[in-house]
């Protein structure tokens, strides 16, 4: 979340943490639920794939995008509102983009 420049409150929201920041404004320590572990896995894969395609993931996450699954939202907003289904759609979109880029790179290096 730090490399994405995401505030702690939004980071907790993204993984589905029901609690709040501590009085000192810091992230609380807690054990991840099974669902949160799954969500974290999606976020890590999105980070990895978006980094390959876009370099600065934090910047890409904040750019409004017209294509589905964003429908004019930023990737952060879409993931925050749509949870795991939105993360799955975003990851599939990024994976397709990475595969297309790999094929272009392969053909251009011949």
What is the molecular shape? elongated
Mean pLDDT: 89
By DSSP, the count of extended strands is 0
Give the proportion of residues in helices.
Answer: 55-70%
Radius of gyration, in angstroms, nearest whole number: 15 Å
Distance between the termini: 38 Å
Biggest beta-sheet profile: none
User: How many alpha or pi helices?
Assistant: 4
The computed structural class is mainly alpha
**Residues in β-strands, percent:** under 5%
Helix-strand sequence: HHHH
The overall number of domains is 1
Give unreliable regions as ranges: none
Q: Specify the oligomeric state.
A: single chain
What attributes does this structure have?
single chain, about 110 residues, mainly alpha, 4 helices, elongated
How is the secondary structure organized here?
Layout lengths: L7 H7 L19 H21 L2 H5 L13 H34 L2
Characterization of the model:
It is a single chain. With 110 residues, this protein is an all-alpha fold. The chain has one domain. Helix 2 packs across helix 4.
Offer a concise description of the structure.
With 110 residues, the protein is mainly α. It contains four helices and no strands.
């Amino acid at each position: 979340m730090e490399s994405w420049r995401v505030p702690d409150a939004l980071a907790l929201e993204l993984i589905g943490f029901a609690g709040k920041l501590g009085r000192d404004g810091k992230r609380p320590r807690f054990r991840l639920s099974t669902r949160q572990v799954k969500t974290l896995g999606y976020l890590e894969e999105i980070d990895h794939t978006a980094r390959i395609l876009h370099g600065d993931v934090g910047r890409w996450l904040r750019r409004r995008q017209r294509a589905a699954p964003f429908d004019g939202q930023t990737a952060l907003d879409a993931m925050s509102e749509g949870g795991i289904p939105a993360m799955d759609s975003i990851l599939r979109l990024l994976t397709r983009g990475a595969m297309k880029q790999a094929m272009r790179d392969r053909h251009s290096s011949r």
